[in-house]
Amino acid sequence: MSKKSITKNYIYNLAYQILIILLPIITTPYLSRVLGAENIGIYSYTLSIVTYFILFGSLGISMYAQREIAYVQDDKYKRSKIFWEILILRFTTLAISMVIYYFTYVNGTQYQMYYKILLIEIVATCFDISWYFQGMEDFKKTVFRNTLVKIISIALIFLLVKKPEDLFKYFVIYVVSNLVGNISLWLYISKLLEKIKIKELHPLKHLKPTIGLFIPQIAIQVYTLLDKVMIGAIIDDKSEVGYYDQAQKIIKMLLTVVTSLGTVMIPRMANTFANGNKKQIKEYMKKSFRFVYILSIPIILGIIAVSDKFVPIFFGDGYEKVSIIMKLISPILLIIGLSNVIGSQYLLPTKRQKEYTISVVCGAVVNLILNACLIWKYGAIGASIGTVIAELTVTSVQIFYTRKDFKWKEIIKMSFNYLVASLLMFVVCLIIGNNINSNFVSLIVQVIAGGSVYGVTLLVFKDNMVMELLDRVKGLVHIK
Question: What domain count does the chain have?
């Protein structure tokens, strides 16, 4: 099997990851006004509940499956065998989770109508085989196949969701679009796999290693979902969940850009490790760190500079608290970006699962303690503080475990150009924001001027990554 371009796969995966969250991002300004903060809070709260059941039903199968497929990319029989074994295991565990969810939440609960609709979300997860294509480093199919589904979903939201009472319609559109998108990937499978006799399949052999990956998955979800559950459980006003969720949507969209290279690099790292090329792994790592710096640092300072102008335009009146939360959470773009490189791109593909697990468990414990202490008094703001400190804990532990693998002083020094350029951009954005009264005009000028200052400063510094990008562009122009 020929090696695919990392650049192309990054672009495909970036498009796919953005597509997953594109629907709520595009529709958020509309839905925040039509449904209101409380209904958005109910949606986020109930969805976070079902996500836990999906998590427990999925175990650590997706991450494990992607890695295992990557190890045997070039052997059609082996990858076919692994595919069917993992699929059987995944269907079984999700079916068990679905039964427990049904008897726990679907009957006699406050939001039982919404919980019933969310049953479809668990079914949709059963049919999700994107892990196979990721393991094969084939991101193109998942992008184009899901694009049409998402576009239709967006159209249906604007056509059908007109008032607060239409919240259930929003639920239906969300879960059905996920189901259709996942089923559509099956159209390719028959050509990519060969038939395996049932007696040759041993799905249970994958149970133990997936449970090993399940522990860090639980820990990660503790500080990505439990905060919403705890806000909803502790604070009577569900608007607090809505504020927190809206801020998270923006941050997660931006985080997708920062971490999307990681999804491409995981199978590449696993395959490189299987071939014993440690030197190449370290070269990939350096590029990944630089990639995180060049994107995350300016985005963080950009959010702090423009959020007061952005929030009223994007969400409408009554969402002022979202701006504060966005500023507080923004550092996770750099923190998670680094932990994605260390943990997902290095520790897991090189089978150092124990260190990865310890790091995320530490983060989960810190987050749980801080949430319990802060949410009851500070609500969504308290959860935001807990999230940042928890993510910082994860990254710090991972840096400790890899202190002998990488020269961390050199890696930190790599951020200098981006930090200086971002600070200059930040100052320019603040000056513009303080001198232009119109939120819309100010935001447009801030983005254009800030981006220009950042880019020109890196050109002046002759930054390695920028120079390399320019050389590639020149090469493409020359070819044409």
Answer: 2
Place of tokens 């039903």: 57
Model confidence over 346-400: pLDDT tens digits?
888 788 888 988 998 899 899 889 988 998 888 899 999 999 999 999 999 999 9
Last residue within a domain, chosen from 414, 438, 453: 414
Last residue within a domain, chosen from 414, 447, 466: 414
Q: Which of 91, 74, 67 is nearest to 201 (CA)?
A: 91
> In this structure, which amino acid lies at residue 273?
F
242 occurs within a structural domain: yes
Same domain, 107 and 237: yes
Write out pLDDT tens, residues 79-128.
999 999 999 999 999 999 999 999 988 876 778 899 999 999 999 999 99
Rounded CA-CA distance 343/337 in Å is: 10
Mention every residue, 6+ apart, whose C-beta is less than 8 A from residue 186: 127, 129
- Check if the beta carbon of residue 336 is closer than 8 Å to that of residue 360: no
Q: Supply the pTM of this predicted model.
A: 0.72
Q: Are residues 268 and 120 in the same domain?
A: yes
